[in-house]
Design brief:
- The structure is a single chain.
- This protein is α/β, with parallel strands linked by helices and 346 residues long.
- The chain is 45% helix and 11% strand.
- α8 crosses α9.
- The relative contact order is 0.15.
- The model has no long low-confidence stretch (mean pLDDT 97).
- The structure holds coproporphyrinogen III.
Length: 346
């Protein structure tokens, strides 16, 4: 059964008034949960997502514990490129690591189009299982945006400066555009498969886009992200476009076409709204580090986030980035209660 379109999360995504502010947390599943550590054996997360029952269970854990308004599929942004055989693994405490980084034209051959049914059927099977289990709680599917995935393929691993990526972008704009076009096609195929399997919304993670100036973003990155968002528009599900340190990019991220823009904690929601313009819903934006502070501070900070939205429709409460692994789950539990207790103007 697909979830009720009037579910608070989906209603807020459409920028319509809700009876209570919906809330979920990026990385709500994962190392902060003891029940996650209990079921997760030593293998890589890329192996864990291939185990349909395990990925289903891990996705459900935070929904059971917190009563959040949405589930997010347990997977990773590099799953599609890994499934294509690009040679990506995820190292604990490091992140994605690429055996032979992307360097020249010949590497485009290693990025053939994604055929989700043949390359990663386990993802769609997990989505189908989840939709059966979740009832009226919407499931969010996701993909990595072309830039953020490219940054791993080009750098070979996480990078602070994204220097190699920017050098390729600026030095070989033609090759860069072809790389991003391939990755856009892969993201579209991945997202379409998740929605066709039952995901009720999708989030495009461009986590590292904030490393770019607005001019670089607009010229070298935005077209590929806009291509992804346009490539799923006919499916009619809400799209969330997210990155960190994107304060200066917010207007462009909205222009790329999503229904919701994710905002990190560096820009208060009222300022973010002014930059985004009307018609765009917002998601965010409590600093995940605040959750490590004493409870009264967490509560007051959550109230500040809610107040900064100013009672406007179209606010999905979230953290400004993923849950830190050292977060006490009890804090997130209470945070959900605080958000749900917030009185929305009618
Ligand atoms: O949000 C969720 O709960 C859904 C699951 C999810 C994961 N990765 C699971 C995961 C999502 C949405 C992602 C997306 C992702 N992966 C992003 C974009 C979001 C963001 O955080 O900005 C990025 C940049 C990646 C790449 C990646 N994968 C990193 C940087 C890491 C952390 C490495 C580490 O161990 O510190 C991963 C691994 C990863 N992805 C883990 C989880 C739960 C941790 C590894 C594990 O538990 O085995």
């Amino acid at each position: 059964m697909p979830p009720d379109p009037r579910a608070p999360f989906l209603t807020a995504c459409r920028n319509e008034p809700v009876s209570r502010v919906p809330v979920w947390f990026m990385r709500q599943a994962g190392r902060s949960l003891p029940e996650y550590r209990a079921v997760r054996s030593t293998g890589s997360i890329l192996q864990a997502v291939q185990d349909v029952d395990l990925a289903t269970e891990i996705t459900l854990q935070p929904v059971r514990r917190y009563g959040v308004d949405a589930a997010i599929l347990y997977s990773d942004i590099v799953v599609p490129v890994a499934a294509l055989g690009f040679g990506v693994e995820i190292r604990a405490g490091v992140g994605p690591v690429v055996e032979r980084p992307f360097r020249d034209e010949s590497d485009l051959d290693r990025l053939r189009p994604l055929d989700p049914e043949a390359d990663c059927p386990y993802v769609q099977q997990t989505v189908r299982n989840l939709v059966d289990e979740l009832g009226d709680v919407p499931l969010i599917g996701f993909a990595g945006a072309p830039f953020t995935v490219a940054s791993y393929l080009v750098e070979g691993g996480p990078s602070r400066t994204h220097g190699v990526t920017k050098a390729l972008m600026l030095g070989r704009p033609d090759l860069w555009a072809r790389l991003l076009d391939r990755l856009a096609g892969i993201a579209i195929a991945a997202l379409r498969a998740q929605v066709q399997a039952g995901a009720a919304a999708v989030q495009l993670f461009d986590s590292w886009a904030g490393t770019l100036s607005p001019a670089m973003y607009e010229r070298h990155v935005m077209p590929a992200s806009a291509q992804v968002l346009a490539g799923v528009a006919d499916l009619g599900v809400p799209t969330i476009h997210f990155g960190v340190t994107t304060g200066e990019l917010l207007p462009l991220m909205a222009k790329a076409g999503a229904s919701v823009v994710g905002v990190d904690w560096r820009v208060p929601l009222d300022a973010a709204r002014a930059r985004l313009g009307p018609g765009v819903a917002v998601q965010g934006n409590l600093d995940p580090a605040v959750c490590l502070a004493p409870w009264p501070v967490v509560e007051a900070s959550a109230h500040e986030v809610l107040a900064a939205n100013g009672g406007r429709p179209g606010h999905i409460f979230n953290l400004g980035h993923g849950v830190l692994p050292e977060t006490d789950p009890t804090v997130l539990e209470r945070l959900v209660e605080v958000v749900h207790a917030w009185e929305v103007p009618r």
